[in-house]
Amino acid sequence: MRKNRFQRVVLGLSGGIDSSLTAAIAVDALGKEGVVGVLCVRYSSSESMEDARDLAENLGIEFHVIPIQEIFESYLTTLRNPFAGKRPDVTEEKPPGSNSRQPAHGAFQQFDWLVLTTGNKSEMSVGYCTLYGDMAGGFAVIKDVLNLGV
To answer: pTM of the prediction?
Structure first.
């Protein structure tokens, strides 16, 4: 990281175990000053938001909450013609929703920060991670860790 002149790392905190483990490893490797957590809010439950905030507080890392509703709506507006006449379903809603996180995370690269991904090996191997959500970043810390879910 330092060889490539990155100053800090930034990662999405969801309140889940994958992002929590990734954040903990990053703090262990870089110290709390080197890690920034971001929670992109659109459909997040209050419990997920509270868990992400508590994690950041417990780790002592910088934390930002970023509303992404406008980014999501711009995707839907852009895709309006191809989806005309079709009922909204997961195909239309999931990718734009997940993809809306990537611009928020990626924006922090302007500070010479490395974006960490939070997907684990099990999720990546079956395509459960979202390409521009969980998989968007420059380094996958837990890419070789099997599913941590319960």
So the answer is: 0.80
